[in-house]
Design goal:
three-stranded parallel beta sheet; six-stranded mixed beta sheet; 13 strands; D-Maltodextrin-Binding Protein, domain 2; binds glutamine; alpha/beta; 9 helices; single chain; 39% helix
């Protein structure tokens, strides 16, 4: 009997120890991003990474009872980071493409987007068809980079940052920049000598990248996104960063 009691006591002690550590420290949920993509992820005046994707991932982490950790990196390192398991989520205004689906999975989409063409106000480029034979700036590894390869006789200049492509356009080194619509609005808003061509270059959907080895997380994230959509919280986050009249 005595022996049983001591075994029981040891068990109870072990269990409370597990409960203690489990309760005081939530497991990390690592989000890989590239904080150069306003309004989805960027640094505020205090150098904190903020934006739509950050708030969506924070809401997902809250839903999962995990602690969100943000890793800022080059855009074209995000998929590798998710693929190798260094990050749990890749969230960076990332467009679902067939090519990317070969190496990682995507959550259900949480936003629609377009690739737009930015040109100087006096440019003769008025539609995607006018890009033939032009010098076009894109951000390395983005869908702007991938899809601009199909433009006939165009010369593609690849930059590490979208900002650098826009600077080259202002300096007259290139004829146009192809980039996502929301960051494009931010760039044009800051540079009145530039405008966005009315007709978009592509239509796309943003989703969160997750390792193919982690179907449980994919299911949890999809459920959390569905909940955010249904509760109106997703719209609330988006409206906080994007003016309703846009
Ligand atoms: N939506 C584009 C892509 O997925 C660009 C994303 C970005 O630059 N953060 O390639």
């Amino acid at each position: 009997m005595k022996k049983y009691i001591s075994v029981l006591l040891t068990l109870v002690m072990a269990m409370s120890l597990v409960a203690c550590t489990g309760g005081s420290k939530k497991a990390d949920l690592v989000m890989a991003t590239n904080a150069e993509f306003q309004p989805y992820e960027f640094r505020d005046a205090d150098n904190n990474i903020v934006g739509i994707d950050v708030e969506i991932c924070q809401a997902i982490a809250d839903e999962l009872g995990r602690n969100l950790v943000i890793e800022d990196m080059a855009f074209d390192s995000i998929i590798t980071s998710v693929y190798t398991g260094k990050a749990d989520l890749g969230a960076a205004g990332m467009t679902i493409t067939e090519d990317r689906l070969q190496s990682i999975d995507f959550s259900i989409p949480y936003a629609t987007a377009t690739q737009v063409i930015i040109v100087p106000n006096d440019s003769e480029i008025a539609s995607p068809d006018d890009l033939v034979g032009k010098k076009i700036g894109v951000q390395l590894g983005t869908t702007g980079d991938i899809y601009s390869e199909d433009i006939e006789d165009a010369e593609i200049e690849r930059y590490n940052k979208g900002y650098e492509a826009v600077q080259a356009l202002i300096q007259g080194k290139i004829d146009a920049v192809i980039i996502d619509n929301e960051p494009a609005k931010v760039y044009v808003g800051k540079n009145p000598e530039l405008k966005i061509v009315d007709e978009a270059f592509t239509n796309e959907e943003y989703a969160i990248a997750i390792s193919k080895n982690n179907p449980e997380l994919l299911a949890e994230v999809n459920a959390a996104i569905t909940k955010l959509k249904e509760s109106g919280k997703l719209d609330e986050i988006v409206n906080k960063y994007i003016a309703a009249d846009n």
